[in-house]
Amino acid sequence: MIKRFSSLYAGHVDFEESGQNADPVNDRRYPNEHLATVFDKSEALARCMDELGYHTLWFAEHHFQHEGYEVIPNIPMLGVHLSHITETLRFGCGFNITPMWHPLRLAEDFAVADILSKGRVTFGVGRGYHTREVETLGGPLLDAEANRDIFEEQVDILFKAFHEESFSHKGKYYTLPPEVPYRGYDLKEISLVPRPLRTPVECWQPVVSAQDRGLDFMMKHGIKGIIGGGSALMADKSIHAFQAAHQRAGIDAKLGENLCFGISFHLAPTHEQAIREAQPYYEEHAKMFGPLGFLGPLKKLQIEALGRRGGIDEAGIPTLEDACANGAWYCGPPEGFVEFLQQVGEKYPGVEDVNVQSAMGTPEAVMIEQLEWFARDVMSKVKPAQAAA
């Protein structure tokens, strides 16, 4: 049964224009003053969602994006700040990309955020998908196997650091602590100081390929999954694979349990009006994420078309109507969204968390309007007894 509603803000600034006829992605460059407006925008969204009874505002960690799409580099720090200007809203790390961190520095940052926010920052980990970010900050991404290996070792270290008073680790990438003399004794173990006050630490991770290795690793640490936010949404095979991973781990889980479903949306009186209004925001999303694989396999000519004005229509890129048809988007009146979500809850009886979001490029005023409308006419009707919980 759906119990909680959240939203994702990946950190785009407001653009002068959005859509296929606006500036191509690689031609965008904003001054620092405009990039810094991401924090005012985050505050506005947090205050709005806090007042309306949403559960979590998720952010995405990204770096070096002078184009203005994803410009929040430190989620725990932002979460602490926002927890001090709101009452109950939680702030999610969706996600900290561990190959861009030393795992103990990440563990320390989250522990401090847990303490200073009084438990209102939610932890999350991911492997990354931007080569410019991961490779620049010292992690592998082009080598997918190395990326998976270091990610798993780092997460093992994170959970040791969070949950053990002292620990040691010897692996392929890390020996912790180093075997050195220290103040008259040989160093054998080390302690995270401080550790999170709220343990075991709840952790979330994106479910993308849904391979057995990755899902079994999530079960090892009790990591919950977020599915959607793009073409993966309502990927029935992945949802069943997540349940099967629970079963292999000896855990009895309902279909959809420990998963958060993500969906992009735009409300309007009619489906046709919603499509018209959301079209430029969807096209901005396609320009940014199509070359990264988020629209499914694309041909070289299609990827090239995404990089020039007006290229989407001429290249046969999947449309917003396609995204609505496969469940990645909902566009239409509130009552239709209520019905859609009730069908999700019936098909996947274990799901308790749903994440709704506006697409890349949506202006702040429209995002807030949509969050208010959703809370009033959708959220309250899907779970009327818990709308303000």
SSE inventory with pairings:
Elements: E1 4-9, H1 32-35, H2 37-52, E2 56-59, H3 75-83, E3 90-93, E4 96-97, H4 103-116, E5 121-126, H5 131-134, H6 144-163, E6 169-170, E7 175-176, E8 181-182, E9 185-186, E10 203-206, H7 212-221, E11 224-228, H8 236-248, E12 259-267, H9 271-289, H10 300-306, H11 311-315, H12 320-325, E13 329-332, H13 334-347, E14 353-357, H14 364-382
Parallel strand pairs: 1-2, 1-14, 2-3, 3-5, 4-5, 5-10, 10-11, 11-12, 12-13, 12-14
Antiparallel strand pairs: 6-7, 8-9
Secondary structural class: alpha/beta
Q: Looking at the structure, what is the overall shape? A: globular
What is the averaged pLDDT score?
94
- The number of distinct helices, counting runs of at least 4 residues, comes to 14
Uncertain residue ranges? 384-389
Helix content: 40-55%
Question: What do you see in this structure?
Answer:
- Helices cover 41% and strands 15% of the residues.
- The chain has helices spanning 32-35, 37-52, 75-83, 103-116, 131-134, 144-163, 212-221, 236-248, 271-289, 300-306, 311-315, 320-325, 334-347, 364-382, and strands spanning 4-9, 56-59, 90-93, 96-97, 121-126, 169-170, 175-176, 181-182, 185-186, 203-206, 224-228, 259-267, 329-332, 353-357.
- The strands form 3 sheets. Strands 1-2-3-5-10-11-12-14 form an 8-stranded parallel barrel, surrounded by 6 helices. It has a two-stranded antiparallel ribbon with strand order 6-7.
- Helix 8 (236-248) links the parallel strand 11 and strand 12.
- Helix 7 (212-221) crosses helix 8 (236-248).
- The longest helix is centred in the middle third of the chain and has 20 residues, at 144-163.
